[in-house]
Specification:
The structure is a single chain. The protein is an alpha/beta fold. The chain has two domains: 2-168 and 338-369, Quinone Oxidoreductase, Chain A, domain 1; 174-313, Rossmann fold. Helices cover 26% and strands 23% of the residues. It contains twelve helices and 17 strands. It has helices at residues 41-47, 96-100, 110-113, 161-164, 170-182, 199-209, 223-229, 243-253, 268-276, 301-305, 320-332, 351-359, and strands at 2-7, 16-22, 29-38, 64-71, 83-86, 125-127, 130-132, 144-148, 152-155, 190-193, 214-218, 234-237, 260-263, 284-287, 309-312, 342-346, 365-369. The strands form three sheets. Strands 3, 4, 5, 8, 9, 16 and 17 form a seven-stranded mixed beta sheet that branches. Strands 12-11-10-13-14-15 form a six-stranded parallel beta sheet, sandwiched between helices. Helix 5 (170-182) crosses helix 6 (199-209). The longest helix has 13 residues, at 170-182. Bound molecules: nicotinamide-adenine-dinucleotide, ligand AHE and zinc ion. Zinc ion (ZN) is lined by residues 40, 42, 62-63, 169. This is S-(hydroxymethyl)glutathione dehydrogenase. InterPro entries: ADH-like_C, ADH-like_N, ADH_3, ADH_Zn_CS, ER, GroES-like_sf, NAD(P)-bd_dom_sf. Belongs to the zinc-containing alcohol dehydrogenase family. Class-III subfamily. Pfam families: ADH_N, ADH_zinc_N. Residues 12-368 form the Enoyl reductase (ER) domain.
Length: 370
């Protein structure tokens, strides 16, 4: 079949809207009509050539919601007409990691996914006979996409696509980082670096968890109002501040340091500050941000000797098929806010504007509605 898609033909170039050829689903796969997709900073990072796994030409996008239109042989858990959210972190329920109960990082298809291919080692997308690669196993910047059955979460049909697509990455990542990875407890003092599409969800997760201080940090002053909307108690604009001064201020506001800090910037210098502002003896810093290829984190080992912990999280530690439908329910029950964060609604033809708005700090989330 044919599908309209925004294709990343080359790094650092605008996406091009073209009609691609799309092969139907093979055994264990499903064809999904994507109804809406968010634009996450990770898409921008890959398009900007900063992803060590970035492959071109490819169809980016990993934050979608849509409807199953066809299923391949052997597919039993979803059927045509089901509403689904694609999962860049699938859940096979059978691999060592899924069975361990210790992590959401299912390994069933990670190797081929990282190469832009379906589990059988081929792509379903092509353009004028040339292979176009998948991205993060999702490729939601295409109106139709093919996904492994284990990489879709079935969701309730009354959830609007335009807002529930955000649960495919940003909402789940931010809220899950707090509730699943960190397991923030009532009364904990929390510090969040980067109040964008992910960080604001960390803030709403911290509020839900009953955190005491929720200190938001950004270099964009307009993010102060945004943070307050979601439960932030204090704000610090660190533009021009040294690491030492930033840490001293955070230690003062949090009565000795953060119980939990979160990096949602992807900046490795910020990650260091996020670790070092943690409370001596127990504070834990969680890295959410994705750093560009070649970057490394560093700190004095003494920071860890004196009891600070450095951890990370992917997709908020959520097991997609199990947890995503629950998060959709929480949204529909009004326990999680999404609508105000969708600042811009675009057509597929306008998708490059979504990247410009993100880079200019003018959007929280832009969503493309097909
Ligand atoms: P975004 O562009 O919406 O937000 C980033 C925010 O960080 C902005 O408000 C920006 O002003 C702020 N910022 C930038 N530099 C800063 C600095 N030096 N100090 C303080 N604040 C600073 O991006 P997003 O969509 O929220 O994504 C945030 C990061 O999380 C990205 O690196 C993205 O790739 C990553 N991410 C990771 C996961 C995961 O599963 N681990 C999931 C989604 C996104
Ligand atoms: N490809 C990059 C790493 C990118 C990365 O860490 N991705 C996150 C999700 S970001 C969503 O917006 C993730 O899930 N990581 C775990 C995984 O298995 O990819 C690189 O550095 O090579
Ligand atoms: Zn994302």
């Amino acid at each position: 079949m044919k599908t309209r898609a925004a294709v990343a033909f080359e790094a650092k170039q605008p996406l091009e809207i073209v009609e691609l050829d799309l092969e139907g689903p093979k055994a264990g796969e499903v064809l999904v009509e994507i109804m809406a997709t968010g634009i996450c900073h990770t898409d921008a990072y890959t398009l900007d050539g900063l992803d060590s796994e970035g492959i071109f030409p490819s169809v980016l996008g990993h934050e979608g919601a849509g409807v199953v239109r066809e299923v391949g042989a052997g597919v039993t858990s979803v059927k045509p007409g089901d509403h689904v959210i694609p999962l860049y972190t699938p859940e096979c329920g059978k691999c060592k990691t899924c069975l361990s109960g210790k992590s959401n990082l299912c390994t069933a298809i990670r190797a081929t996914q990282g190469k832009g291919l379906m589990p059988d080692g081929t792509s379903r997308f092509s353009y004028k006979g040339q292979t176009i690669y998948h991205y993060m196993g999702c490729s939601t910047f295409s109106n139709f996409t093919v996904l492994p059955e284990i990489a879709v979460a079935k969701i309730r049909e009354d959830a609007p696509f335009k807002t529930s697509c955000y649960i495919g990455c940003g909402v789940t990542t931010g809220v899950g980082a707090v509730t699943k990875t960190a397991q923030v407890q009532p009364g904990d003092n929390v510090v969040v670096f980067g109040l964008g599409g992910i960080g604001l969800n960390v803030i709403q997760g911290a509020k839900m968890a009953g955190a005491n201080v929720i200190l938001g940090i950004d270099i964009n002053p307009e993010r102060e109002e945004w943070g307050k909307q979601f439960g932030m108690t204090h704000f610090l604009n660190t533009k021009g501040m040294s690491r030492e001064d930033t840490i001293a201020k955070i230690v003062e506001i949090t009565d000795g340091g953060a119980d939990f800090s979160f990096d949602a910037t992807g900046n490795t210098e910020v990650m260091r500050t996020a670790l070092e502002c943690c409370h001596r003896g127990w504070g834990t810093s969680i890295i959410i941000g994705v750093a560009e290829a070649g970057k490394e984190i560093s700190t004095r080992p003494f920071q860890l000797v004196t009891g600070r912990n450095w951890r990370g999280t992917a997709f908020g530690g959520a097991k997609g098929r199990t947890d995503v439908p629950v998060i959709v329910d929480m949204y529909m029950d009004g326990k999680i806010k999404i609508d105000p964060m969708i600042t811009h609604t675009l057509t597929l033809e306008e998708i490059n504007k979504g990247f410009d708005l993100m880079h200019a700090g003018e959007s929280i989330r832009s969503v493309v509605v097909y």
